[in-house]
Every structure is written in C-alpha cells, then in structure tokens.
Amino acid sequence: MNANVEYIYDTDFRLSNEDEHTAWLVRCARTHGLNSVDLAYAFMSDERLLALNQTHLQHDTLTDILTFDDSIGLDIKANIAISIERVRENAQAFGETFANELLRVMAHGLLHCIGFDDTSEKKKNMMRKAEGACIKLFHVEHKSKKHVS
Predict the structure, then answer these.
(1) Which domain holds residue 101?
(2) Can you give the pTM of this predicted structure?
(3) What is the pLDDT of residues 73-86, one digit of tens each?
C-alpha cells in the first residue's frame, strides 16, 4: 500500500511517536481495503480550527476535527485539522485519556474519508464501532511490542 502521513503542528503539542501513529493509520486503512493513503494531520488551537470552520463550512462553532476529503474511491487523500484543546476537554468530559481521545479523533477523520459519517444515531453508532476497532489496533500493536522477548 502506498502511504504518506504528514504531521503539522500549529500548537505546542507534539506527537512523541509519529512513526507509531503512521504505522497504526496504515493498519487501519488496510483493514478497510484501501489502496493508498495520503493524509496530513494538522494539530492546532480552538481559535485556528474555529477560523477554518467559519471560512470553509460557515459554521460558527468549536469542533474537535475538520476533514477536508479529496479521496477518490479506495485512494484516500485528506487534510485533517484537529483542535488539541477540544481533544483535551472532550477526554475529560468523557472520562477518557487524552491519548485515547486523540486516537479516536484521528481515526474519525480517516473513517470519514472511507465513507463513514455521523449524521444519524445509527450512523454515529457505526462510526463509534469503527473508531473503537481502530483504537484497539493501536493498543494491540503496542501491547505485543512490549511483550516480545
């Protein structure tokens, strides 16, 4: 599979393990039968993401993620903007760790490109299930690496 994942930082936040996140995203993509992924994840403040939301979607609300999807079929190409502030607040509100909430949001962006959406309760449930499967892939990989002798 052709894969390219870029990380852009417009905040003090930095992923400590970009390579692990890239490998995980590629595994998620493979489980959905994709041919290629070309993703750019931009981590930013609420203020910056709000400005994007206002400019591109004419929404005047805070959000945790915006996905700009240029995918064609099984070839995924997208720019995904994530508010680190929203991820932190949502993690706290949902009783989740920041790391797991970040994984959920990152998977959410990819899943939108694949065709998942969250416009109804039924579709939200399907999205949550797919997010959970992706998060599990991340943790299974890391658990097996830690226990290899």
Answers:
(1) 2-146
(2) 0.91
(3) 999 999 999 999 99
